[in-house]
Automatic annotation (TrEMBL):
It comes from the Bacteria. The keyword Cytoplasm applies. Specifically methylates the N7 position of a guanine in 16S rRNA. One of its GO terms (molecular function) is rRNA (guanine-N7-)-methyltransferase activity. GO terms for cellular component: cytosol. It comes from Actinomadura spongiicola. The keyword Chloroplast does not apply. NCBIfam families: rsmG_gidB. Keywords: Cytoplasm, Methyltransferase, rRNA processing, S-adenosyl-L-methionine, Transferase. HAMAP family: 16SrRNA_methyltr_G. Gene3D superfamilies: Vaccinia Virus protein VP39. Its main location: cytoplasm. This is Ribosomal RNA small subunit methyltransferase G.
């Protein structure tokens, strides 16, 4: 895994190592990372999140919904200093942890906001929303899509049920008038199991309240890639 770390993080590896050490100590002590996760922290968590950076456009504004311990938000900030990232988290103990992380790592492209995504509509508007282990896709899209600019993208890190969750979310995706949905796998050759993403491209309708009102002609399209 040493070679994998160097390939993925490059010159940012020392910062990633400080973050990993903080997760292994304070993260475990405060209940943000399970003690059994420390032995597989790099492959299962850090590298798994870092490879997502490959599909985020340059200089994007990003919100990490339900950031928790900063996965993937802090990892993306480490490998992509061009991104402007907001870590959105409703729980105080987690926002305190996140604030300590970005100060310790001197991540100047990150800010922390305490609150729920559904309460941030109109306050946060971004190009990309990320989420990992937050909620099933059919619920996640109702929180994340209203935070996106028209044509923005939700990148949801999912596991083996990604395709099933995408099917289950079909009705709500149509309601939001999304442009397209796609299954992606990133990190081939860098991790034993590539990271599975569901990418949802927001429609170009007007965001109203907690929903997105799409033009009448807009229809959700779906495609698959592996």
């Amino acid at each position: 895994m040493g070679i994998g770390r160097e390939v993925v993080f490059g010159d940012a590896l020392p910062v990633a190592e400080r973050y990993a050490a903080f997760l292994e100590t304070a993260g475990v002590e405060r209940g943000l990372i399970g003690p059994r996760e420390t032995d597989r922290l790099w492959e299962r968590h850090l590298i798994n999140c870092a490879v997502v950076a490959d599909v985020i456009p340059p200089d994007a504004r990003v919100v990490d919904v339900g950031s928790g311990a900063g996965l993937p938000g802090i990892v993306l900030a480490i490998v992509r200093p061009d991104l402007r990232i907001t870590l959105l988290e409703p729980l105080l103990r987690r926002t305190t942890f996140l604030t300590e992380c970005i100060e310790m790592l001197d991540l100047r492209n990150v800010d922390v906001r305490r609150g729920r995504a559904e309460d941030m509509v109109g306050e946060i508007t971004v190009d990309v929303a990320t989420a990992r282990a937050v909620a099933p896709l059919k619920r996640l899209v109702t929180w994340a899509l209203p935070l996106l600019r028209p044509g923005g993208e939700l990148l949801a890190l999912k596991g083996e049920r990604a395709a099933v969750e995408l099917d289950e979310a079909e009705t709500v995706l149509k309601r939001f008038g999304v442009q397209s949905t796609e299954l992606l796998q990133v990190g081939r050759g860098m991790v034993d199991s590539p990271t599975t993403l569901v990418r949802v491209v927001a429609g170009r309708g007007e965001v109203v309240g907690r929903r997105q009102r799409a033009p009448r002609r807009a229809k959700g399209s779906r495609k698959r890639s592996s």
